[in-house]
Structure formats: structure tokens, C-alpha cells
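Hey, can you fold this one?
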Amino acid sequence: MPPSLASRIALVTGASRGIGNATARALAKAGAHIVAVARTQGGLEELDDEIRKDGGTATLVPLSLTDVDGIARLGAALYERHGKLDILIGNAGVAGPSSPLGHIDLKPWNDVIAVNLTANFQLIRCMEPLLRKSDAGRAVFITSGAASKATAYLGPYAASKAALETLVRVWAHETASTPIRVNLFNPGPIRTQMRASVFPGEDPMTLDTPEQAAEFIVPMCAPDWTETGKFYDYQTRTLMDFRTPA
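Sure. Predicted structure:
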């Protein structure tokens, strides 16, 4: 049985599709009220319909995460309405160009860093005070194996995810003595539109679905989850510690 998340407030970025969408629905089924953030109004409305069908509730926030002032306004609005935040899912991400580093212009590089790294930094800045108001604040950020594999031709994406992992680990250390628990989740190859755009020759039916991955994210958001600064690898179903390179 999934954990009960009744009365919990959960902010999910990139909620209109893929892992973000599946995680938002799974958290709602467990009882959480979802604050769903995505760029596309239509995708958010479809998510809202699905959540309502299952008896859940959601607040829809059409917002580009490159709008850092918008993230700050969202934090203020959440404080006014709820006075706290219990769960933060940093899922939104972009793949960026699939090219040799020397062929990538500065703008697409900056675009990837803005969404995959800077937006999450701003989320941490603006949402930590709200998570501290919770009796058990939980944060999960979605990473990628590209961060450690340094996958060729995915330089901006790989670099942004590697930096995100370090950012999240720093935050986990900074909040270790608080009730906040901060972790990373690596889904591996999952049947998403982003994956299909990067690996068009791959048969998506050989991959697990976002819904399958989301089942393992939900427990990391529960009040009884005690680990922090860890890395959950979905493919091996293993919670890992980070180790200093030899």
C-alpha cells in the first residue's frame, strides 16, 4: 500500500507529462494536494482531470521555470494559501542539443542550464522556508545516468545533471539537522517523449513507464522516509550513498 499523504502539499515541476505527470498523479492518489507546475496549460488541465477522476485535488500553475521571479511569486503564494510545503519534486528538465561540444552555441547551452540547474537552485531558495514549516519536508530531484557517464554528444544535459546532483547534495548536508530530507532519483531509460527525442531509434515498448518509476518516488516523499543526501537508482532498485572518487 502507498503511504498516506493526506493533508500534505506537494509541488511538482514538469507536471504536464512524463515522470512529473505520473508522480503528480501517484502523490494525489496517496492523498496529497498537488501544486502542478508546467509550461503548457492544456497539459496541466489534462492532469487535473486525471487527478479529479481519482478523487484528488490540484492547483495548476502555468509557469516557465526560466521565470525565476515567477518561482519566487509562487513561493509567496504558497505561503499565503497553505503556510507550508511538505513535498518538492524537482522534475522539470530539457534534453538540449545532441551535438559535439564544439558545435553547440552558447544560447542552447544557457537554455539547458537555466531549466535543469538554475531553476532548481531558485526552487531551493524559495521553497526551503516553506519546507521548514512542515513537520517532515521532503524533496526529490530527478537526475540522470548521463551525469556520471559523461555521455558523448549530450554535454549540456550531462553537465547540468552533474551540477544538479552536487547542488542537491550540498542542500542535503545543509539541512541534515532539520526535519527536511533531500534526495536524488535516477529513473534510467523510461518511456518518455524526452527519451524518444534523444534516442529515436530505441523501441519505447522495451522501457518501463513513468508510472512504474513514480511508484518508487512516492515513498521517498512520506514522513517516515528518513534518508537524506542519497541517490535512488530505479533500474537496480538500490538506494546508494555518494562516495569520494578514488
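The chain is about 40% helix and 15% strand. Let me know if you want another pass with a different chain boundary.
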